[in-house]
Each structure stands twice: as C-alpha cells, then as structure tokens.
C-alpha cells in the first residue's frame, strides 16, 4: 500500500510538471490567442493520469497543472478571482475525465479498441467541457471589454474559448487513444 501511495505522489508530480513543460515549449504549443489559451499537448498528461488513477488523481493533477502555471508566471491573470476560476477550477476540472477510468481500463484489458476509444473520448470531452465552462464564465465576467460592440459577451467568450478548446479536445482524444492502443499498460496504476 505504501509503495502505491509513493508511486501516486511521484506520478502526479511528474505528470503535472510534464503538462506545464508541454504547454511552454513553443513548437508543441500553438498560442495565438491574446488573452490566453492554446492548442497544445499540455492536457494529455493530466488526462493520462486521470485514466490511470481515477477522478481524484485527475483532479489533483489538473489542480497542480494550473498552480504550476501561476507559479511560473505563464498564467494570464487579471484579478485573483479570475485566476482562481481559470487556473484553479477550470484546470482542476480536466481531472473529471477520470470518472470513466475503470471503463477505459476494462475495455483495454478486454482488447475492445472501439469501446476504449469511446470512453476516452467521453472522458476527455467531459474534462474539456468543464474547463471550457470555467473559461467561458471568466470571459463573461472579466473580459467583456474585448467583445466587439453589439456582440453579446457570452457569445464572444464562447467563440474565443471554443476556438482553442475544440481543437485541443480533438488532439487530446486522438493522442491518448493512440498511446493506450500502442501501450495498454499505461492505464494500469500499479507499483
């Protein structure tokens, strides 16, 4: 039991740090959005950890990823509340993908490739959707001055945040499915 806890702590630290590194390496992160947001491989380690250790592990990994962004100065923060919503809650929400971790692991063990792809896609969709909602709310309350005149702020925020979250969802789903297909043991959390 102690070896499992040690493995958990080591892996959560490594995966969260890897997420940050993948987010800041220029050729692995496509950043053209002026108020933050990017299409990158950064969410993949958080999702991998969530599918490996379940929702609690995923939530912790997402929280650490957001905290690392704040600590390293890569976060785009206007106010403490906006920072909490976008880097605390939104990134933590990525870990909700772990709600289907047992289904993913069972499908992998059974060799049901189409089933594990569906569960991975559903888990990543859940995590990305909740992260999107966090950014959408922050956009409505803290970035209203950026909306074009006459455009509802909620629509502006939805378009802005959706323009990077949708491609990031697709990228994450494909890469994670490929990784688990090629190496199913990545989903097993054992010392």
Automatic annotation (TrEMBL):
Entry keyword Transmembrane helix: yes
Gene3D superfamilies per record: 1.10.1760.20
UniProt keyword terms in alphabetical order: Membrane, Transmembrane, Transmembrane helix
Pfam families, per database record: Thia_YuaJ
Keyword Transmembrane helix tagged: yes
Membrane spanning stretches: 7-26, 32-51, 58-78, 84-104, 116-144, 164-181
Protein name per Swiss-Prot or TrEMBL: Energy-coupled thiamine transporter ThiT
Gene that this sequence comes from: thiT
């Amino acid at each position: 039991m102690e070896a499992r806890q040690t493995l958990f702590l080591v892996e959560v630290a490594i995966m969260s740090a890897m997420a940050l590194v993948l987010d800041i390496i220029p050729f692995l992160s496509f950043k053209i959005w002026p108020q933050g947001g990017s299409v990158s491989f950064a969410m993949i380690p958080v999702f991998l950890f969530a599918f490996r250790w379940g929702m609690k592990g995923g939530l912790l990994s997402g929280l650490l990823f957001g905290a690392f962004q704040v600590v390293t100065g890569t976060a785009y923060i206007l106010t403490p509340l906006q920072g909490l919503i976008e880097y605390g809650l939104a990134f933590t929400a990525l870990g909700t993908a772990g709600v289907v971790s047992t289904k993913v692991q069972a499908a992998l063990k059974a060799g049901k490739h189409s089933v594990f792809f569906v569960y991975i896609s559903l888990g990543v969709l859940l995590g990305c959707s909740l992260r999107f909602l966090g950014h959408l709310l922050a956009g409505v309350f803290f970035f209203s001055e950026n909306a074009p005149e006459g455009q509802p702020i909620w629509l502006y925020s939805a378009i802005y945040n959706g323009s990077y979250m949708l491609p990031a969802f697709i990228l994450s789903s494909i890469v994670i499915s490929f990784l688990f297909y090629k190496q199913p043991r990545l989903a097993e959390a054992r010392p």
